[in-house]
Amino acid sequence: MKLFPRNKIWLRTVLQIFFFILIALIAVNHVLEDSGVKIPLLSNASLHAVCPFGGVVSLYQFAAVGTFTQKIQQSSFILMILVFILAFLFGSVFCGWVCPLGSIQEWVGKLGKRLFKKRYNHFIPWRIDQYLRYLRYIMLIWVLYATAMTGKLAFGDIDPYYALFNFWTGEASFTGLAVLGVTLLASLAVERPWCKYACPYGAILGITNLFSVFSIRRRESTCKSCDICFHDCPMNIPVHAVKVVRDHQCIGCLECTSEAICPIENTVVFATKGSR
Amino acid sequence: MKIRSKTLGTIIAFVIFGGILGASTLGLWKTESVRNPNSIQRNKSIGEAARENAVTGDYYPADIRGNHRFGEISEIFNIPLEILSHAFALPPDVDPANFKNQDFDSIYPSFEGEQEIGNGSVKWFVALYTGLPFELEDEEEDTYLLRPAVEILKKHASLTAEQIAYLDAYTIEIEFEIPDSYPSEDEFQSSDEGAGDGEETKLKQDEMIVAGKTTFADLLDWGVSAEKIETIIGGGIPNRLILVYDYCAENGLPFGQIKTELQIEVDTLGP
Ligand code: SF4
Ligand code: SF4
Fold first, then answer.
1. Of A180, A209, A238, which one is at a domain's C-terminal end?
2. A217 phi, psi to nearest 5 deg
3. The domain containing residue B216 runs over which residues?
4. How far does the centroid of ligand 2 lie from the alpha carbon of residue A102, in Å?
């Protein structure tokens, strides 16, 4: 028996699981710290210190007065820079390959796929949906504005990522837990609802898709317009209808490529401009 | 150029972990205790200042441990017991000679936010009082003293302007009347009074206390109008996120006085 289906980007799943467990263990270690126990070789940093988005929300304050937003550490800045390097090269691959919140939505979605079969992830008509996808920019503006004005982690109280790894410690806020609950429930019908409509970090990274060095490219001459890439894209991007995916929602998961779902070899690829 | 999933995955892992490794090698990977760079600066120079004041002795404030009794500290560093007792507001039913540094938790109610009185506070007080060399360690940054201790130091110790500013920024306010005619050391040694004032000691637990960590944004959030703040600081608020303390330091303003005036404004707002 094969561990992964043939047309799966298996390394992505491996990395997703790896990062999920890593962050979960860091969260556990952080709590254990108080009792003097520690999982060896593993950081016991707070979750805020290992979140690259913390660096982003601190940017304004850092530039203006040279200090970090409350609870944010220098490591967040480093991670932010590393993720931006990846994003300039490959677009939002952080979302597709690393972010544990994205991963868990995807995993819950597998259950949803069984429940709703073909209707899963296709409930909202695209003509409306494509505009709803900009909601996350409103969230982004609010988060940046509120953090810059107060110097406190304005997003912390609603952040489902923090709630996900702290639901058992009593540190997560009620709002955070509620947002997490709604997100996971919605994941049964829609793939990655938080990423699509609300994630402020996804919103920033999404902008890099518009100019990243590598992007998803479709070779029209060999494409037989089966639309399967579109149907399987977790973010509902009409890959079948464009030559280059420059969509702010693409998470670089490569599931639409010829390496995965596209049945024709060398037709949907992740490549730089001009390469065929 | 085309890239396949295996290469992409490897690059992602390499950039993240390689980057973290590189940052740690350069000493840039800090997941905790990265404090306001200004405050690190501030503490360093206070440490240096303390060293400049140094007189050589057999014991140093850094040697003070949690299980030391006030009696021993008084003897070793030649500080009247009454001064220690008064500075740390020991209640009248506590015998100052036998009081241990590690027992502060049992006599104070919990303070607001990160304010804390502990062994570090005693070291810091002793260092400033005696002028012996002492450098605030990383973990002792943001070392607080109670208002009576600060008043005693201002009266009895020779402090630099910078040390005074630091003390003002890291004072825990307690409702404690310091008499204008504060007795001299000699009077202290010959009298039992003073320590008994602790009876009236009631620690404020109000959230809205202007301290070293207060930013202009905090004041505005608490409801103090921008105009009032600007009148007190005598200029425009440059940026909401700046610490009032840093603003005063940069503009040569007395933080202690500004803080008091701001606190009056805050207090008039009511609960
Ligand atoms: S959009 Fe946000 S939650 Fe979704 S994967 Fe990206 S960073 Fe994570
Ligand atoms: S377009 Fe392709 S790479 Fe982008 S999100 Fe959709 S399936 Fe993933």
1. A209
2. -130, 140
3. 195-268
4. 14
